[in-house]
Amino acid sequence: MFHLLDLIFGSMTKADSWLYSGVLPNLRYDLPASLVVFLVAVPLCLGIALASGAPMFSGIVAGIVGGIVVGVLSGSEISVSGPAAGLAVIVATSIEKLGSFEVFLVAVMLSGVIQIILGYLRAGIIGNYFPSSVITGMLTAIGIVIILKQVPHAIGWDKDYEGDFGFFESDGNTFSTLVRAFRAVQPAAVVMMLVSLSLLLFWETPRVKKHRILKLIPAPLLVVFLGIFINALFKFYAPDLALTSEEGHLVTLPAVPISELPNHLSTPDFSGLLRKDVYIVALTLAIVGSLETLLSVEAADKLDPFKRISDTHRELKAQGVGNLLSGLLGGLPMTAVIVRSSANVYAGGRTRTSAVAHGLLLLFSVLFIPHVLNLIPLSSLACILIMVGYKLAHYGLFARMYESGRDVFLPFIVTVVAVIFTDLLIGIAIGSMVGLFFVLRANHHSATILVNDGNMYLLKFNKDMSFVNKAELKTALSHVPNGARLYIDGTRSMFIDHDVYDIINDFQSSTALRGIQVELKNFHGKKLPIFNISSVAAPITAISQPNERKKEDNNEQPYLKQIIGQGDASAVRPTGNGRLPKTASRQ
Q: For position 528, what pLDDT does the model report?
């Protein structure tokens, strides 16, 4: 079976794959981490299903499939998949548009097929083009958002569903919710919060980390037990102050007998395959879900203490299979989720075993112990998430990013602010635009150098020349005086854009009137064949006389004895045939 998976999804090296090595040695890290991820995932799965207007079981189904199936097939060792809050609005509007959840499930299945195709098309490379400062900003912003969203739950305000990470809400925004929460504080929740956070912080101290026994006990598990115990004490001594499920303060996992479980699962209505709008929804889910997955995997790699590089193409295929099965079984669409993934990393998870085990725990809890889980206060789970958020957005990170310079800090802080006040994808887009500005600025100021020795000028290209360097090139050419002899050296450029050739051709058209002579060096074969430049502008003509030429490497090239070198420019002998390469002759 594993050989078949390798054939479909690509081979895995022994160093990176749990299928070949590392399972048993890492169990003592992965199993406790899976328990933490499981505790985080339960309220999120239920909350996102509620926000999506879908059956409660659909969120659990997506969490189980995301943990077990995607966990096994994933291209990442530490990312965890499940229903994503970023898709909740799309899911809710799509269900309403398509008319039923059963028809929507067909769109989920089709989105999985599209993601598999994207994986084979190697679309996973898109994740590599987001600046590191933007990814760091996304992680930091998610940490802040987690804290802002979980504080109300920690003090007993559970009117909003778990997993709501958007700034704007149906009844206000994140800050207005905080104000309302502090006006309706639950004493029992506050006691749980203070005890839980104190315990979590104490567990981070060197004394515990070095203790032979205590370091083996997951702090989040103790927090859950303490929450149940404290609430039980309130029920016994002060029933009016205890947290109850009727008021939404406890986990509400559906308790269904195993024999009746199939009756609670939705099945796809395949008549939707004949509807055009189903395919539009499927494409939307595939694109948005794939982007969120690639961003989450990129962020998880950044958090990975072993700095492994995930196979993003394989990840897209895994997500596709996961969505295909989730839709077939009545589940929500899923993505790799940074909240679960970061909880996995900070809980000590090392391999994909933790993701798979968390999926198995979800399945086990639904089948056998739903009543036990329904005793857990949301306040306790909120404290676990607040600790995750604190680690993601530690204050020391802001100082380190600031010290890295303006080009790094500004995209970082803009991304942080944008994600907090909008959502993940919009924030990343805004941060990436700011990052792109600094990339263009850096390229604009370092692509060329112009030096001279008397009336002889050397214009040297320091890197590949693209359209973003047009302004700098025009500025350099404008500084060449009348009557000068200009040598343009493209040795360091592997690629020269058509726009650059065009600018040089335009410059040549004015040289006859200004008495400027132009010579080129190493401009051959550095432009992709698009169309014949000579049909657009007259090529630069050689100024060398025939008796000054000699044959070299089967090409006619002028050999100039003058050596030009001044300032930072290295001494060069301009060579070349004196013409811009004609595209037609190089095809």
A: 45
Which residues are registered as beta bridge partners of 519?
Answer: 487
Q: What is the CA radius of gyration of the chain?
A: 31
Token duo for residue 490: 């493209």
- Encoding tokens for residue 173? 């925004």
Number of neighbours of residue 172 by Cβ within 10 angstroms: 13
CB 419 within 8 Å of CB 142: yes
pLDDT band at 4 (very low <50, low <70, confident <90, very high): very low
124, 315 Cβ separation under 8 angstroms: yes
373 Cβ neighbours under 8 A, 6+ residues apart: 42, 251, 253, 365
485-489 and 456-461: which strand pairing?
A: parallel
What is 157-225 written as a DSSP string?
---SPTT---SEETTEEHHHHHHHHHTS--HHHHHHHHHHHHHHHHTTSHHHHT-TTGGGS-HHHHHHH
Domains of the chain, CATH where assigned: 2-431 (no CATH), 447-586 (3.30.750.24)
CA angle 197, 199, 200 (to 5 degrees): 65
Q: Which residue reads 């090139």 in tokens?
A: 473
Cα-Cα end-to-end distance for the chain: 47
pLDDT band at residue 532 under the 50/70/90 scheme: very low
User: Is residue 524 within 8 Å of 495, Cβ to Cβ?
Assistant: no
Q: Which residues contact 537 (CB under 8 A, 6 or more apart)?
A: 502, 505, 506, 509
Q: How many CB atoms lie within 10 A of CB 271?
A: 11
- CA 514 from centroid of its chain's CA atoms: 53
Q: Is the CB of residue 46 less than 8 Å from the CB of residue 60? A: yes
Q: Give the pLDDT of residue 473.
A: 87
Angle between helices 219-237 and 187-202 (to 10 degrees): 150
Give the integer Cα–Cα distance in Å for 112 and 125: 18
Per cent of the chain over pLDDT 70 is 84
Distance CA 12, CA 17 (A): 6
The confidence score (pLDDT) of residue 496 equals: 85
Dihedral Cα 32, 37, 38, 42, nearest 10 deg = 160
What Cα–Cα distance (Å) separates residue 501 from each residue in 78, 169, 418, 465, 507? 47, 53, 39, 10, 10
Binned at pLDDT 50, 70 and 90, residue 539 comes out as very low
Q: Which of 497, 460, 499 is nearest to 477 (CA)?
A: 460
Q: How far is CA 322 from CA 80, 248, 272, 291, in A?
A: 12, 30, 20, 16
